[in-house]
Amino acid sequence: MLGPIxxxxxxxxxxxxxxxxxxxxxxxxxxxxxxxxxAPKAVALLISECVDAVAAWMKSNRLxxxxxxxxxxxCATSRRRHQLPTTEC
Length: 89
Known about the structure:
alpha+beta, elongated, two-stranded antiparallel ribbon, single chain
C-alpha cells in the first residue's frame, strides 16, 4: 500500500499528462476524476484522446484502466446541449 507521499510521487506524471489536454483532475486512492471545459464540437475528440493517453500511461505503469468503471459526463446549458455529441466516446 502506498503512503500519501509515495502516492503523490507515483501519480504526478498522470496529473501532468491530463493537464496537457487542458483538463484538471482530482486523485483519490482508487479513483481519478478528470474535468474541464471545451467547445461542444471538441468534446468527443478531447475525451477520447485523454482517455487513450491515460490508458497508455496506466499500461506503462503496469496498471489497467477498467472500462466498466469509466464514465463520461457532459454538462451544458440548454442552449448548447444540442451541440454535444450523442454517440459514445
